[in-house]
Amino acid sequence: MPRPLALVCLMTLYVPLCGRAADRPSGRDFVTRSPAVSRHGMAATSQPLASLAAVDILRAGGNAVDAAIAANAVLCVTEPTSCGLGGDLFAIVWDAKSQQLYGLNGSGRSPKSLTAEVFKEQGLTSIPSYGPLPITVPGCVDGWIILHERFGKLPLSEVLTPAIRCAEDGFPVTEVIAGYWKAGVAAHREHPGFMEVFAPDGEAPAHGQTFKNPALGQTLRAIAAGGADAFYRGDIADVIDRFMRDIGGYLRREDLAAHRSEWVEPVGVDYHGCRVWELPPNGQGIAALQMLQVLKGADLAAAGFGSADHLHFLVEAKKLAFADRAKFYADPDFSKAPVDALISPEYGARRYAQISPTSAGAAYEPGNPALRDGDTVYLTTADQDRNMVSLIQSNYRGFGAGPCPPGLGFCLQDRGELFDLTPGRANSYAPGKRPFHTIIPAFVTKEGRPLMSFGVMGGDMQPQGHVQILLNLFEFGMGLQEAGDAPRVRHAGSPTPTGDPAEPNGGTVLLETGYNADTIEELRRRGHQTADGDGSFGGYQAIWYDQEQNVYFGATESRKDGVALGY
């Protein structure tokens, strides 16, 4: 078990960036703060008001699911650059009563009236990033309702009250979010309805500026009163339908009315005496499990954190897993991936044998796993009854597609961009199909009991980030906050489920500050192309349940605006 650092009640503490991390009394040089610790409940999110809302709900008698929904709703108001009611949702819930994990796939499908012929007629070989064509059914709100109906404790109206207040009374915009907001306004200035909602004064709100979204407050009030029907089968659905017709889009009331979230079985692999859990496709969570199975062949603990061997084997394992991701991961209703085989120890060992310990692989072909047949938010909450929630929610590409239906206060997602327009592949576009998804929650159990709820948001970085957190904890002996603060690596250039081929010469290894020059030089000698980091290294939150001491530890991402709060 990772060693706890200095114990801090109520909230994590920031270390001024002008100071040296080595000045801290404990932890490694790169540690930015101490983990939170509490007895009764914990929340870790990427924005302080969301963490506060979750803890307030817990203190009011709500459970971890209530707190997670409350936090997500507040993030839809305060961090619209990453999530919103127009996006999708995935969650893993540990239910203390049944002592079981439950997985929820809250992703929406493509419009039934949008056929592949439409893209062909427009001469498109890939789906655009913005505008009406990549818009799919928003799954977030139904995800909230399904979670609440099964596990919630407080009335939905009470759970959504903090978000409604933030929207109607206003909130001060935090620093990192302000930067993304500015970039979003530059990207979406011409999209219908966007400026009216997110830049009514003509510019993005600045850091510290109070921003209000009364239209979103009214939408949340309608959901609080009418649940999923209000959003998918009522006036909100009518507004979305009319708006999509007006802008030349294809999403219709019938698509919204037909949407339902799906309970799915989490899948896991054994790792260091624990079991690591992810959700099956159409998400990419099993890529993290594949990487872990491959990396069991390498002695990373002996190599040490930040060594050339550590980074070399990590990057090569990623390349192998992502080659399979490009071929197999898709909506299981249309193309069933061989999940059990892909995450098996035998297949992991076979893939590990393909790695040269001294040279980078330029490219890897997808394997044959049939062994016998030949801009996102992540949050986590925990309550006094030891229920825990791992939840991730996103618009994709920041604000999403750009168009904002009038009077509703949110953008519609552009998740449909992640379909492949080449016919005959697992993730090929089809009407009524769920696209390949990047957003993935994760969970760890030990001996059938909850240990850690965690995630690392950020597109292709997510499975890479999950694995790096787990290596930091279990191979390199870091604490919960240390594991997130440690410098990260991100490999770019693998083939994608949208049909993009692998980049030549093995792609690029991007490195955060903190790796020594000798390590970087050795990676280059082995054939890796390296580059300085570009800021795209994800956003981590985690809660660890220490059964011996009967307390929670909470950690949050130093690269974001968030905090971990407990009571």
UniProtKB/TrEMBL annotation:
L-glutamate binds at residue 459. One of its GO terms (molecular function) is leukotriene C4 gamma-glutamyl transferase activity. Gene3D superfamilies: 1.10.246.130, 3.60.20.40. It comes from the Bacteria. Residues 1-21 form the signal peptide. It catalyses: an N-terminal (5-L-glutamyl)-[peptide] + an alpha-amino acid = 5-L-glutamyl amino acid + an N-terminal L-alpha-aminoacyl-[peptide]; glutathione + H2O = L-cysteinylglycine + L-glutamate; an S-substituted glutathione + H2O = an S-substituted L-cysteinylglycine + L-glutamate. Cleaved by autocatalysis into a large and a small subunit. GO terms for biological process: glutathione biosynthetic process; glutathione catabolic process. This enzyme consists of two polypeptide chains, which are synthesized in precursor form from a single polypeptide. Belongs to the gamma-glutamyltransferase family. This is Glutathione hydrolase proenzyme.
